[in-house]
Structure formats: C-alpha cells, structure tokens
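User: Sequence in, structure out. Go.
Assistant: Echoing your sequence, followed by the structure tokens.
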Amino acid sequence: MLSGLTKFYVGNPLLALGFVMLAASIAGFVVQAIGLRILKRLVRHFTVTDSLVRSTSRPMRAVMPLIFLQIALAALPDELVYGGRIRHTVGLLLIAALTWLAICCIAGVSATIVALQPINTADNLRARAIQTQARVIARSLMGLALLIGISLILMTFPEIRALGASLLASAGLAGIVAGLAAKPVLGNLIAGLQIAVSQPLRIDDVLIVEGEWGRVEEITGAYVVMSLWDQRRLVIPLQWFIEHPFQNWTRRTAQIIGSVFLWVDYRMPLAPLRKQVERICREAAEWDGRLSLLQVTDADQRGMQLRILVTSADSSKNWDLRCKVREGLINYVQLYYPEHLALTRVSCAPGGAAKSTATQEV
C-alpha cells in the first residue's frame, strides 16, 4: 500500500499535493470545531477561561488547519514539485496565525479583567487602577507579540537573514540611525510600562494638562486620550507624562475643595452671608457635607474679598456647586443688602473737584 501511495505521489505530484492539503485542512477544521465545542461546555462556568476561549475561537480556526497542513506537508517526499515553497508559505501563515492567536489571548484576558472591574460605581479607585494596568500592559504585550511574529517571519528568509547579519557586522552608522529612529517608540513603550506600574494617572482620572481640564478616556501603547469638558479630545504622548508635571485631581480620591471669591463693601455683615452659604449648600445635591466655610481673605481701599470654600465628591459636582453658591450669594446681596455691594468711593478735593479713588464691580 505504501508503495502504491508513493507511485501515486510520483505520477501525480500536483494532484497528490492538493489531496493532502485538502485532507489536512478538513481534519484541522473538524478537530478545531469539536475541541471548541467541548471547551465551551467545560469552561462555561468560569468567567476568565470562557472569555479566553471565545476570544481565541477565530484565530484557532486558522491555527489548527495550518498545524495539520504543516504536519502533512512535512511527511511528503522532498522531491515533490513546489513542496519546499509550499511548506515555507504554510510556515509563514502558521507564524502569522500563532501571532494573531497570542494577540487575541492577551486581548481576551485584558477585556475580562476590565469587565470584572467596572468604573461606573461611586468608589471606583481600585477598579480604575486595575483597568489602567490591564489595558497598558496588554497593549505593550500585544505590540511585543506582533514584533516577535514579524521577526520570526523575516528570519525564515535566508536572504534577509544574511542581510541582517551583514548589517549587524557593519552597524556603526546604521545602528545610530536606527536607534534615533526608534527612540520615540521605545520611549513610549517604557513610559507605558512606568505608567502601568507606578500609575501617576489612570482611566477616568481628572487631569489638568497644559491648562486643559478633562478625564482620561483611553490609554494606548503610545498616547493618552483626554476627553475635555467641551467634548474635545486632547491626545498626549505617554512619554510626556513622565517628563512633565501635571495635575491629577483624583490620584487618591475624587473628593475636592472648591473656592468662590466675592468682593463686598466693608459695611456688609458677614453673619447673614455665612448662614446663606450654609443654606445653599444644604439644598444643593452636589455638596457632600464635609465643609462650607466663608472667610475674609483680603481687604484694601475698595472693600473686602470673601472666599467661600465648599466640598464635593468630585470635580464636576464641585464646579456646579461653586456656580450655585456664587449665584446664590450675588442674588442674596442684591436683594437684601444692595447698598453693601462693592462701590466706587469718591473724595472731594478742597477746590470742590471730585476724584474717584477706587472702583470695584461684583
């Protein structure tokens, strides 16, 4: 029987090759389909494993047939027409499919971790920290897997491998140029790992960057996307956060103290204003009950500067609360103490001429 198969290979090489490739591919598809169905039943009660199986089901449809195809082609005679080229092509496809499988595995684990740690809760500090680490590390690992896959594919070509060896042997200027060209990429990669480990910023953190207020919407392997308050997007390279200072309003907690400034005349009584601040804060849903304080922080020939400190659970609520306090105090002074608003003082010179000494508006 073996001699008959050999004669068939020799007499009909292309037909034999096509038959072997078709049979191996079908066998790979069948094994993949049966194995996937069994695995789904076995791991359906385990969240992480189930997500991993589902995320790798598509690349496995390519990996299993290619593995069977590679095994079948390796068993064929070496003198088969186009056998070497076909084996090489299948090998390249297998490396590409395995790279795809590795990337899908990393993405599946990362997606599962993100799903298990939702950030749409009141106390989401730990969840944001875990999500940031998972996403940044996953993107770094996916980039590394892609780089390894491309390197393995290139190494299968003897011409390119020889060229690479010659370049390494004479890599004086070429090495410097390549290093300079790769510096931004490597810098962002290292910065991404630093951010994932030390976490100076996390997903959904509130930052002040270059005078812009916004929330961290996305952290990729190369840059950070901030969603600004007016629906714009600010894109900053990862390395920038390592080399420049920035404000993080939610580093340890989202709670924040906000200030409101108001100028009034010296004759304005402070006790009614303090009661009004307390009343406004009690009626405001944005106040967290920690602090509502009115103080005189400055005084000059124009009048008194009042500073009102109020607290909220996060910066968005604090902004709305500050606006409510400011509007409420202005309305209160206008209604009950209009004569105590900051005024323009005028002194009369001995000759009867009037001279303005100070002007201040609310």
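User: And one key feature?
Assistant: The chain has eleven helices and ten strands.
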